[in-house]
Design goal:
Length: 304
């Protein structure tokens, strides 16, 4: 029997926020390197303070909080969110990136690189993903801890619009042949089957649906051999399946990171927004505005 991952749902009604448009901030790829990374942490304080002063309804961070899969970096992000009053289920959504779950230096050590037991590497990876989910469970279910909570659906009833964030994990283990840099992605079959379950589309039909994963649908996509090689190391392997899954749940927008470029592009009328890299552009972020008729606008903003 094939096991199908269950969707984790939570719905919350908000009455005290804006009545015109839902305002969502999106950042990605922080790549923090500990508390000694003071310059970046100062930029993070500045950005979070800005989000509060401008009055965003929700913040999305689409992965790669850490640069070396160090939970201490996750803790730094959580502490910063707490300091700015953003560490709440209705205010913030966080997913993992490949740098949160894969320590490439460790994986490429001699004893790991020659380990033929791929199932053991997958088991270790699953433990790390579970650790991430348990660490940020307040932002996923908001209630009970879990070992692996992807995919999950977060539905918030704002006064002007019902917004559903459908989050998937696109990171998969390092393998010397298939994923040599640990940067290729895949949406697991279990997650795709979970989204395809009967009733999911009906449950989301009255919502403005936002898809969320770490990996980009589009990287370079050029005829240059060098760029094509880079594409291969960074690509979402089953991006067409992912696209079909997003279309099936009638997603309007997909937010992602991974490829460090601020981009907005469309694939078959579905909007994709790349949150770029906070590490390299800590003064820049994406703003998504959703109106009560279901329309939306998006722009990249740079702080002066």
């Amino acid at each position: 029997m094939t096991q199908v991952t269950a969707l984790d749902w939570k719905i919350e009604n908000l009455k005290e926020l804006n009545t015109n448009k839902v305002k969502i901030a999106h950042i990605s790829d922080l790549h923090l390197s500990g508390k000694q990374d003071r310059r970046q942490l100062g930029y993070l304080d500045r950005l979070f303070a800005h989000f509060n002063s401008v009055g965003f309804d929700h913040l999305v961070i689409s992965g790669d909080l850490s640069n070396s899969a160090n939970p201490d970096d996750w803790r730094i992000v959580r502490e910063k969110l707490e300091e700015h009053g953003l560490y709440h289920w209705q205010k913030c959504t966080i997913i993992a990136g490949n740098h949160d779950l894969i320590n490439l230096e460790e994986e490429m050590r001699f004893y790991n690189a020659l380990n033929p037991l791929l199932w053991a590497r997958k088991k270790s990876f699953d433990r790390k993903l579970g650790e991430f989910c348990r660490f940020f469970y307040e932002l996923i279910t908001g209630e009970e801890e879990g070992s692996n909570l992807f995919p999950f659906v977060k539905v918030i009833n704002y006064p002007s619009q019902r917004v559903a964030i459908v989050a998937l994990n696109s990171v998969y283990p390092w393998y010397p042949a298939d994923n040599p840099l640990g940067a290729r992605g895949v949406i697991s079959a279990n997650q795709l089957r979970a989204l395809a379950q009967k009733g999911v589309v009906d449950s989301l039909k009255d919502s403005f649906v936002i898809g969320l994963c770490h990996h980009a649908y589009k990287v370079y996509g050029t005829d240059s051999l060098i760029d094509q090689a880079f594409d291969w190391t960074m690509e979402l392997k089953n991006r067409e399946e992912f696209l079909r899954a997003m279309q099936a749940i009638q997603a309007r927008v997909v937010l992602h990171g991974h490829f460090h470029r601020f981009q907005a592009y469309a694939v078959d009328a579905l909007a994709f927004i790349n949150g770029g890299s906070f590490r390299f552009s800590p003064q820049r972020y994406s703003e998504l505005l959703i109106d009560q008729e279901g329309g939306f606008t998006q722009k990249f903003i740079t702080l002066s």
